[in-house]
Sequence to fold (72 residues):
Amino acid sequence: MSSGGTRIWVDAGSGTLGPLQRHVRLEELDAIWISHLHADHSADLLTAYSAHRPAARSNRPSPSPSCTTDIR
Fold:
């Protein structure tokens, strides 16, 4: 939803993130409004969070624990 230059993602249910991104980038959202905390209204929040993390937007890999096993 947008009005007067304000952009709000209303209910982030499964399958809403893709269509939303056809109209606005996540960085351009002013707010996310969730009517209630059932999965059918909030399931795409985790996907959006993962996509919006700084590591996901840079060319650098996310930090990971060092591997102590020698694989040969």
Notes: Residues 2-55 form one domain. The mean pLDDT is 82. Helices lie at 17-21, 39-42, 45-52, 54-57. Residues 45-52 form the longest helix (8 residues).
